[in-house]
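Page 42, continued from yesterday. The earlier attempt failed because a stray header line got pasted into the input along with the sequence. Redoing it now with the clean sequence only.
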Amino acid sequence: MSWGKIFLGILLFLPASWTKVSRMNAAIDLAAESYAKTEYEQAITDHLALMEGFGYVGTELDFDLGLSHQYAEKPDEALGFYDKASISADKILASFAFNQSGVIQGNKEEYEVALSKFKSALIKDPFNEVARHNYELLARWMQRDKERKEQDQNKPEPSDFAKRKKAEADRLVEQFRFKDALTVMQEALAQDETVAAYQEFIKSLEEIIEIDEK
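This time it went through. Structure tokens are written below.
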């Protein structure tokens, strides 16, 4: 075989690989562009094309697909991709994948699961301030909600007398006679302990009167 034929073979072989790399780079740019334009359905299509057309895989791609599905309002599909991204060797990427999963679970009112996801995000990256904020905010809300439910369970069932006095106080409030309304409720409470079912209403009257007197 002459050197000319070998050289020609090399020239014929290299452009094919160059073309594939060039096409893959173009596909990557296209996926990034569609996401940047908030065209999330198209971003999903473009990112999946990288996987199916070029065998392009990785936790970064999984995270991008998670974001695209999340913003395209496909939370269940997004969770699947975030689960894949959360096992990334890149702890920062894994942390944000856990955080985004927590956001979705919180929106689905799966609060215990969401809190666990935010906690996992902080374990992966203790400096993830977004996850820390979400964890602390949700933890506080869950504690207050628990306390509120416990208070509701302990509230007495108001008697007919208590209901009548509450209705009387409501009419006074409509006339902006907050002191009179408070007096009605306080006197009623002294006579009937079930008036305590309206303790929050009584407290709000006290706060209004306090503000008015300042």
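Notes: DSSP finds ten helices and no strands in the chain.
Reminder to self: strip header lines before submitting.
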